[in-house]
Amino acid sequence: MRPDDSVKERFENRSYFPSAQANKIRVQLLRHLTGAALLACSANDLVRARQIVKGLRIVAPDGRQGIIAEVITELTADNIEAALRCVGPLAAANDPYGMIFQALALGLAGRVRECEQVLSRTSHGDPAIDELRREMSSITQKANSGR
Fold it and tell me: Residue 1 above 50 pLDDT?
């Protein structure tokens, strides 16, 4: 590895780590970067959140963590359409977390019927997804009753 290698090049060429160790390090890195992005969002530090998301997307370009972190960053910035564009492919692949976050963005955009349709298509049986679906349905019903 040369000192001038970019981060992307280093992660694309993971041959300098044994495979199991590389995967473990990568999973931990993704988890920590995602947490850092969410912390930056909670502090409304969108510049930092976007920088972290950029790093996530380099390490795992199509990874769920990076996509969800980017969606949350865009929602924090009140950029709902960008969040919908970002989560669209993940939701279209029937990823349950992608679908839940798509429903969240649709609900925030006031597109209640579409939100409910997406929620109804999410898979059943995963306790985390089931709980998210119940929470989103509750939020949607409250938003709909106020209109």
Answer: no
Name the residue among 14, 51, 8, 7 with its Cα closest to residue 33. Answer: 51
Tokens of 16: 């300098």
The dihedral through the CA atoms of 88, 93, 98, 99 has a sign that is positive
**Could you tell me which of 115, 116, 65 has the C-alpha nearest to residue 95?**
65
pTM of the shown model: 0.78
Question: 73, 37 in Cβ contact below 8 A?
Answer: yes
CA dihedral 49, 55, 61, 63 (to 10 degrees): -60
CA distance 100 to 137: 10
d(CA 56, CA 31): 10
- For 13: left if phi > 0, alpha if psi spans -120 to 50, otherwise beta; the answer is beta
**What is the number of alpha carbons within 13 Å of residue 119 lying toward its C-beta?**
23
Q: Which residues contact 74 (CB under 8 A, 6 or more apart)?
A: 80, 82, 83, 86
Pinpoint the alpha helices (H) of 60-126.
Answer: 64-76, 80-92, 96-108, 112-121
User: Is residue 117's pLDDT more than 60?
Assistant: yes
